[in-house]
Amino acid sequence: MKSVEDLGDLRGKRVVIRCDFNVPLDGDKITDDGRIKAALPTLTQLHEAGARTTVLAHLGRPKGSVNPKYSLAPVAKRLGELMNLDVKLAEDVVGPSATKTSESLADGEIALVENVRFEKGETSKDEAERTELAKKYAAFGEYYVSNGFGVVHRKQASVYDVAKLLPNAAGSLVAKEVGVLEGLTADPKRPFVVVLGGAKVADKLAVIDNLLKVADTLVVGGGMLFTFLKAQGLEVGKSLVDDDSVDACKKYLEAAKAAGKQILLPSDVRVASDVDFDAHTVGQVDVVPVDAIPADKMGLDIGPQTEKAYAEAIKGAKSVFWNGPMGVFEIKGLELGTKAVAQALTEVDGLSVVGGGDSASAVRALGFADDQFGHISTGGGASLELMEGKELPGIAVLKENN
To answer: I need a surface site. Which of 62, 106, 199, 203 has the fewest CB within 10 A?
Structure first.
C-alpha cells in the first residue's frame, strides 16, 4: 500500500479521505471520541501539507435514507475542536451543498459531507449502483486516502469502489492497524495469548479456528464461555448458550489438547437471577463454581478466582490480542472480570492489542487510557476478520490499484 507521503506534494491538491467516525452518541453528545482522535494524525498531515480535504464518513445505520438522528454535525463540531480548525459540514452527501463545500476549500482546509449511508448506493450489493455513487465521491478530489479501518472489511462505495477510481494511499491509521494485526498472525512474539469474550460463539468460530493455529493459549470469557461449559457436559442454568455451536466447541477443546495448546475456561462465575439489560441493573450477584451454577440463575461475568488465573496467563505473554468483554461490563458489579483482564493487558511485557468494538469502549468506560495498551484497534469486525486470515476488500483494493 502507498502512504500519504508517496502521493507527493499535496499543496493545493484536492484529497478525498474515508474516515471511521461511527462514534457512540447520547442525543447529540459524543460519549467516546476515540475514533475521531485516531484519525487526527493523517488529517493533521493533510492539513499541514496544504491539501484541500473532503472527508467521507458514516454514523449508525440510516439504511440509505436521510435521518437527522444520524447527522455528522456532532462529529464535525468535535473534529473542529480537536484540530482547532473550522471544519465545514455539507448539508448533503453528493448534492449541491457537498459540491459547493468541497470546491470552496482553500489550502489546508477540511470539510465533511453528510453521512455517506444516507445514500442507498453506499452499501448496495449492486456494483454498478455503488460505482455510480463512487464517481460522485471521486469528483471531490484528485487523490483518495483510506483511513477508516473500521470499514475496510466492507465492499462499499466510499471504501472500495472510489479507491479504484483515484490514485490512492493508506492513511497512517490503516497502515498501523494492518501492520500490527498481520504481524500477530504471521510472526507473534511468544507466548502468544488470545483473549476472546463477547456474547456469541458463532461470531468468533472463524477467528478461533485460525488463531488456534498460531496462539499458544486461548482464554475464553463473556457469554460465549457458557457454550464451552455446556460442551464439557456442565449445567449452565439460564446462561446464554449457542446450542448450534456446542459441537464446534467440543472439537476446539479436542484440537487444542491434541496440539498441546491450552484453552483456558473459568473455574468460577458471577451469577444473578434478576438482571435488566436495558436499565443496566442487577439484583443480588453471587459467585459460584462453574460446576454448581443454579438452574434459576444466569452467568453474567467471570469470577474472582478466574480473574487471577486469566491475569496470570496474560501477564506471562509476550503478545496478547483481546476481543470481547468478560461480562456485562455496563452493569455495576459485572464489570470486574473485564476490568481485571484490561489491567493485566496494561502489565504485559510485550505487545498488548485491544481488538476494537466493545473491548475498546469497555477499557475507556472503565477509566483506562489508550496509551496504557500497545494498540487499541478502531475496528472490531475488521480486526476479527483480519485475524481470521480473510482478505479485506478495502485493503486489497489499495494493494491492487497501485
So the answer is: 106
Catalytic residue, from 150, 337, 357, 380: name it. 357
pLDDT of residue 402: 64
* Stated pTM of the model: 0.89
* Torsion sign across C-alpha atoms 116, 21, 101, 46: negative
Helix, strand, coil percent values for the chain (each to nearest 5): 45, 15, 40
Which is catalytic among the residues 121, 150, 221, 381? 381
Bridge partners (DSSP) listed for residue 52: 14
Catalytic option among 200, 238, 261, 318: 200
Residue 357 among the catalytic residues: yes
- Alpha-carbon distance of 302 to 360, in angstroms, equals 19
Are 19 and 348 in contact, with CB atoms under 8 Å apart? no
Contact predicate 292/236, CB 8 Å: no
**E-assigned strands of 235-335?**
262-264, 268-272, 275-276, 281-282, 286-289, 298-302, 319-323
Give how far Cα 365 sits from Cα of 22, 31, 282, Å. 17, 9, 19
192 is written with which cell numbers?
A: 502468544
Reply yes or no on whether the pLDDT at 401 is more than 70: no
The answer to whether residue 200 is catalytic is yes
Question: Measuring CA to CA, how many Å separate 319 from each of 175, 351, 354?
Answer: 19, 5, 11
One of 35, 78, 117, 364 is an active-site residue; which one? 35
pLDDT single digits (tens) 303-318: 999 999 999 999 999 9
Q: Is 283 a catalytic residue?
A: no
Separation of alpha carbons 357 and 344, rounded Å? 19
